[in-house]
Prior knowledge:
single chain, mainly alpha, ABC transporter involved in vitamin B12 uptake, BtuC, 15 helices, ABC_transptr_permease_BtuC, transport, membrane
Amino acid sequence: xxxxxxxxxxxxxxxxxxxxxxxxxxxxxxxxxxxxxxxxxxxxxxxxxxxxxxxxxxxxxxxxxxxxxxxxxxxxxxxxxxxxxxxxxxxxxxxxxxxxxxxxxxxxxxxxxxxxxxxxxxxxxxxxxxxxxxxxxxxxxxxxxxxxxxxxxxxxxxxxxxxxxxxxxxxxxxxxxxxxxxxxxxxxxxxxxxxxxxxxxxxxxxxxxxxxxxxxxxxxxxxxxxxxxxxxxxxxxxxxxxxxxxxxxxxxxxxxxxxxxxxxxxxxxxxxxxxxxxxxxxxxxxxxxxxxxxxxxxxxxxxxxxxxxxxxxxxxxxxxxxxxxxxxxxxxxx
Length: 334
């Protein structure tokens, strides 16, 4: 743990927020269309209809805002998932959020001929939320009730199930692949801020509740018996945590598609900085998640310029070596 005192953690969080704002600025300024900080200010203070001002206002600003929001959601959801399952490799992916949302999108395109990005948002959000409900139900079956190992296994099974169904449907009707490929890759390119309006009323309260139950999560991670001995209603805490994961991970995948590894990487980095206290892990994870998505998105613009690769590909490139490292570290520890 690098930051031990409360004062250092507060200062670190302030610095992190400043870095997040800087990354938002970089996302607005950098890209194929050559712009500068001065151009960005002029685009909002003295809009003249030029190509540069249009790009900044209509493309890059929404992209930066959506990237930050998606990163915040995935960072918190990943930290919550790892705390709940006591699995250092857990993330929203492991409970099938991405797979469930993807399946619902493919079904909507193939059966109902949906092709609206706005409609995709709601369909994916509902699909992700229902997937979490199913996983929680399956993980609760049995005398012990909901346990970390059962939740992890149920999530992995549901993710594999939905992924298989999705691949099967796309194999039957390859024409649908072209319509959903841009969404399945995971990207914040071409998204509109309006896509956030429908889910923000759910995301904001979920984030606020996360900070309020952080101390209860701390107790739960020590052990369920200890938590019950201290009078905690562990079942209620788990249910609230599951709802938060469903809303945050579902909202992120609904807007940007299935972006992997952010929920795995961020909590580990954050815990190395502030320790295991989730009263600090959650806000730090939110900031770090936003920074990671924004930096990955900026880098994705330059890899094969003038073309761009989806930010989901960049996070996979970053996250895969990290995942292998954590898996090997866990194997050695065991």
